[in-house]
Amino acid sequence: QVQLVESGGGLVQSGGSLRLSCAASGSIFSINAMGWYRQAPGKQRELVASITSGGGTNYVDSVKGRFTISRDNAQNTVYLQMNSLKPEDTAVYYCAAEIYYSGSLRVYWGQGTQVTVSS
Question: Average pLDDT for residues 16-30, to the nearest whole number?
């Protein structure tokens, strides 16, 4: 069984920083892309940042220059460093990973972690 466990959310003032972590566990054969999504109240879930197994990254325009995604392949962990946070970054953040497990490839999701930025 595969699990993604997130940590690092919380309450921070505007302009502050947070670092999210997401560790995948289980009998994982390999992990392709990993990413972070967020969902604010009343809004659709959106992709914030993604990273391939080779380290290629992609960001939504609203976080470019402020957020950095990285991964540790040996630890099956993905990180999201969030700097210069704004109130509009407030949302539940979810990690996702495309994982080969038990002979099949599928996307797994974390449980979500709340990020609240106060003005």
Answer: 94
**Could you tell me which residues come within 8 angstroms of residue 3 by beta carbon, excluding any fewer than 6 positions away?**
24, 25, 26, 108
In this prediction, residues 94-105 reach a mean pLDDT of 93
Q: What is the pLDDT of residues 40-49, one digit of tens each?
A: 999 999 999 9
DSSP string of 40-95? -TTS--EEEEEE-TT--EEE-GGGTTTEEEEEEGGGTEEEEEE-S--GGG-EEEEE
Contacts of 92 (CB under 8 A, 6+ apart): 38, 39, 40, 112, 113, 114, 115
Rounded to a whole number of angstroms, the distance between the first and last alpha carbons of the chain is: 41
